[in-house]
Amino acid sequence: MRALVYGDVDLNIIDGSAIWAQAMVQALHEAGVEVTFVLKAPVRTDRLVAPLEKLPEVTVRRLPEDATGSLTVEAAARLLTELDTAEPYDLVVVRGRRLAVRLTGTPLAGRLWTYLTDVPQNTAEMAASKGVRGELAAVAKASRFLLCQTEELRCFLEGVLHKAAGKCVLFPPVVALPPGLEPKAGHTPGRPLKLVYTGKFAPRWNTYEMTGLPRRLAARGVDAELHMIGDKIHNDRTDPGFSRRMRVALESTPGLVWHGGHPRAEAMRVTSGCDIGLSWRHPDLDASLELSTKVLEMGSLGLPVVLNRTPMHENLLGADYPLFANTEQEVVDVLAEAADPATYTWARNRCLEAARDFTLAAAADRLRGYLRLAFPPAPAGAAPTKVVVAGHDLKFFTRLLDYLRSLPGVEVRVDQWPALGKHDPEVSRELAEWADVVVCEWCGPNAVWYSEWLKKHGRPDQRLVVRLHRFELYGAWPGRLDINAIDQVVCVSPHYADLTRKMTGWPADKVTVIPNWVDDAQFGRAKLPGAEHHLGVIGMAPWRKRLDLAVDVLEHLRRKDPRFMLFVKSKLPWDLPWIWNRTEERESFEALFRRIRRSPLLASGVVFDPAGPDVASWLRRVGFVLSTSDDESFHLAPAEGMASGAVPALLPWEGSDRIYDRGWIHEDPAAMAEGIAAMVAEGRWEEERAQARAEVRRSYALDLVSEQWAELVTRSGGAAAARTPTTYQAPAPSA
């Protein structure tokens, strides 16, 4: 693998963005990737660049020595494109929104791994930033991955930018200790108590206020010394006098040692000789979706850190961490308490433990996983294959489409039908002539058209694969298909495969099972507090989804424990005319909503959330995913819940026990409620959800299902060739 890396950052200045660039190159190198790293600015100090130039398989492209300034966005885009044209790269890692937007219109689109930080970080900012949502949508479309520093940023982007869902992956800050530098075992606070800050000096980073800490601590009887490392003093337009005040304080404050700028390794050595790190910031930054690299560096060195209490920091260090502080007085108070060895050791151990997830080795492992997703190997014996995927709605096929496109030797084109029965026959004909394999998503008019065309005009080696869902089985289209022109009909569950054979009379070996896929890596996110009392339903319409039975479950639970809530992520029935125009459906839903509104138990216990692709982030709050339908062909929601670490709870619709373990299936809503309540009360929820995640990984993980599709699509032989149905095993029933 070859990667081209460019960050819209100046490596002459040691700050979080520069450290990111260095760490990204190091992590890619550790993951086995050959890297070309393009610098934005001429090198004035090689403190960050020199270590990279020593790495084998890493090329650092410096600007000419006579260059007078940094690369503009336009110049950077032009240079990256020229380098790729000369010798194409497999992936292009970029940081900086303006640059990423510029690259969406270049041949690099599709290979971008875009690191997003300089984006609006709440819905109000997004709404106020004209054009930014459209720019980010274009970036998401052009990117293979959007690299997000934190789970909070990932969930925010997926919520406000639906094109980002499924592409957002985590790449947290990376902490790599210099050789020979390790946290001191059993370290306790010294006298004087040495405080340390490293980074830029700016108003919202409270660096001027920090300079008064030695004086204020002395008034509390604590002898303290403040060490500050860095040479970038911010010029603030809203506070023109800040730069001068800050410099005077650095140069003349008693008890303050200003070390100036240092190479990163030396800065960390100075830090390691201190007792407590400072990352206390202005409240304006509490809503930030970014995590300070300095906090993690200090933690890895064994220094407890004073920082603001925010949900992100509580998630990192625990709500009971003793050194949270939001005001200057609170900072003084917790520092005075930290002089106590017991409090100090507690905070130190918590920071050390948190930092272990942010090592260079962890980052390299994370990148290896993303590389496997982006560049899967071709199945054994696979032949070069031209594939057409045809259909009006590809939402259930998107990730499979990405997988097929990424396979070596496989070329994919899409015949996008604007509606179920509408298409451009000329475009379809050209694609049919070109293809080795046609995959029809939905067994509808698209499958009828392609089967008729291939029967009349197809080559002997051409193959047609049709994926059939519940919807089509009860329509007229299967009866219009010439099954002799079809290589394989794919169903998503054993029950519906049997039903398809029975209702159509098609030969048994023409109908096979490849289950629905679940992107378990995307769904595997930390649960939010209280999730064990939260039920989830994904999709409430049509009526046969039986939301009323899920409400029955909630009602049973809330009679004994009002902490239980039901979250429903769905379009509302009146948003779907084909449902709302049916009198029986409309009256049923109206009666259910009246019941919820008028019930003291239910009125405050049901939350309706809008439909959208941000299911993975929504599921963080859900501990149980319910399936109360009258019937389903597969029902993906419980599997998605399992991948998220939620426990599935199903009613026994026909075929459910051939997809999900019988242990998750309950006789009726009362039994379901009883099982959920007992699991929570007895403390078994953590164990059960771990079992559920392991089960879905064994059976329905995206990579496993994608491999089955790859084997089906890339094998040789036409419709007349002998068939070998895909082997599929449902989860084994529990004892």
Automatic annotation (TrEMBL):
GO molecular-function term, one example from the UniProt record: glycosyltransferase activity
The keyword Lyase is annotated on this UniProt entry: no
Stored InterPro entries: Glyco_trans_4-like_N (IPR028098)
Keywords: Glycosyltransferase, Transferase
Domain of life of the native organism: Bacteria
Domain Glycosyltransferase subfamily 4-like N-terminal: from-to ranges: 434-521
Transmembrane segments: none
Region (Disordered), start-end ranges: 716-735
Protein name: Glycosyltransferase involved in cell wall biosynthesis
Species per Swiss-Prot/TrEMBL record: Actinoallomurus bryophytorum
Lineage: Bacteria, Bacillati, Actinomycetota, Actinomycetes, Streptosporangiales
